[in-house]
Amino acid sequence: MVTAEQAWAVLADVADPEMPMVSVVDLGIARSVEVSGDRVVVTLTPTYSGCPALEVIEADVRAALEAVFADVEVLSVLAPPWTTDWITAEGREKLAGAGVAPPGARLLPLLVEGRPSVCPHCGAAELEELAAFGSTACKALWRCLACREPFDYVKAH
Amino acid sequence: MRAATTDDAVEALLRIGDSCLVLAQRLTAWCGHAPALEEDIALANVALDVLGHARAMLTRAGELEGAGRTEDDLAYLREAPDFRNALLVEQPNGDFAHTIVRQFLFDAWSVPLWQGLTASTDAQVAGIAGKAAKEVAYHLRHSSGWVVRLGDGTPESHARMQTAVADLWPYAGEVFLDDDVDTRAAQSGLAPLPSSLEPAFRRTVLETFTEATLQAPEDPWWQRGGRQGRHSEHLTYLLAEMQVVHRAHPGASW
After folding, report:
1. How far apart are CA B249 and CA B245, in angstroms?
2. Closest to B172 (Cα-Cα) out of B101, B96, B105
3. Sheet holding A127-131, edge to edge
4. pLDDT tens digits, one per residue of B139-173
5. Structural contact between residues A79 and A120, judged by C-beta atoms closer than 8 angstroms
6. Does B240 touch chain A (CB under 8 A)?
7. Which of B46, B115, B130 is closest, CB to CB, to A79?
8. Which residues are paired to A62 by β-bridges?
9. B203 has a chain A CB within 8 A of its CB
């Protein structure tokens, strides 16, 4: 007999391919798990429309589940659209611990501004944006004016 | 006027999806060539997002058509007259000023477009739009920032921007011209009426050009026809490059 908790535990070990310090659960990409008998149905939501990691994430999730469960289905839903508000508190801590500033709060649903609150290296609050687009679709490049180190920032989205 | 048909819906979605696809193809040509590393990455990121929008819309158009055509079939196996993109996006990259002005005009249109599409009666389209609306708002922030920086920059950058605006402005109005397909698609609730998006576009352009010290030209006779399949020669060359590998190796995967 399979339980949803078992499936969530498997998902918690599936790392994001571009930010391997966080899992698909930390990022809020895994939206739901439904279990009936031996069947496990996991629903994912894509982050950015053009994120090249999407197909890898889906394949990784499927492979991890199939290694444990016999009957697996992985679905994808678009609505409601993924937002960085769904990144868990634990996920934010893991990002910051790896030198990546977690997203700030979104002020309005369509206002894609926001800024990192503090430098993930030294904790200073005086920061500047170097480039609006960073190493992946979800990140921008910022720099700390205190320690002068550049860092990735997961954009509020 | 007859009621909206499946054909209208497919046509309306291709008009949006093809514009995204052709622009993405244009932008990828900058990869490795942009004036600064940050901008190289930015243009590639914008291209990825817009390609994502194209894939979603082409996939949905293929589903509604019901003839079994996938996003790849639609992208790689149609000829230029089958494409429904606006003429603006097939215009050559030109210098960086032309690429930025083209991007800005596209973004200023696509922000109200995707916002309108979030209310589509087609749940799949509304879902795609919910994601795209956030992404294109970020693109507009980026492209309008460049319009201001270059327009209100050096005499050289200002002159290049003014030239780009003069060259591209005649292609800016096509996406607001309603035809019967657009009207029926709007009446069915699938997509907003193109002309309804024009006030928001005008506000963005006026605000940004004013800050950039650029003159918006008088409205010309808008160049048109792309959305009905009548294209410039530019598109055929673009498609030849985009489609050649798929056509040379049908069904290949890696």
Report:
1. 6
2. B105
3. A100-101, A150-154, A139-144, A127-131
4. 999 999 999 999 999 999 999 999 999 999 999 99
5. no
6. no
7. B130
8. none
9. no
Question: Which residues does A38 contact at the CB level (< 8 Å), separation at least 6?
Answer: A1, A2, A69, A70, A71
At residue A142, φ and ψ (nearest 5 deg) are -125, 170
With a cut of 50, list the residues of chain B below it in pLDDT: none
pLDDT tens sequence across A94-106:
999 999 999 986 6
Task: Determine contact: B63 vs chain A, CB below 8 A.
Answer: no
CB contact under 8 A, B127 and A51: no
Contacts of B134 in chain A (CB under 8 A): 81, 109-110, 112, 157
Q: Which residue has the tokens 């030849």?
A: B240
Nearest to B41 among A79, A80, A131 (CB): A131
Amino acid residing at A141: L
Q: Cα(B96)–Cα(A46) distance, rounded to whole angstroms?
A: 32
CB atoms A111 and B137 under 8 Å: yes
**3-class SS of residue A37:** coil
pTM of the model: 0.94
How do residues A115-134 score in pLDDT, each as one tens digit? 899 999 999 999 999 999 98
Tell which residue, A71, A67, A73, has the closest CA to residue A13.
Answer: A67
Interface test with A, best of B16, B31, B45, B253 (most A CBs within 10 A): B45
- Interatomic CA distance for residues B88 and B175, integer angstroms: 9
- In angstroms, the first-to-last Cα distance of chain A is 38
Choose among A78, A112, A141: nearest Cβ to B130. Answer: A78
- A2: closest CA of chain B, how far (Å): 32
Are B175 and B194 spatial neighbours (Cβ–Cβ below 8 Å)?
Answer: yes
DSSP letters, A49-95, are: TT-TTHHHHHHHHHHHHHTT-SEEEEEE--SSPP-GGGS-HHHHHHH
User: What distance in Å separates residue B40's CA from the closest CA in chain A?
Assistant: 10
Cβ neighbours around A47 below 10 Å, total: 25
CB < 8 Å to A79, chain B: 123, 126-127, 130
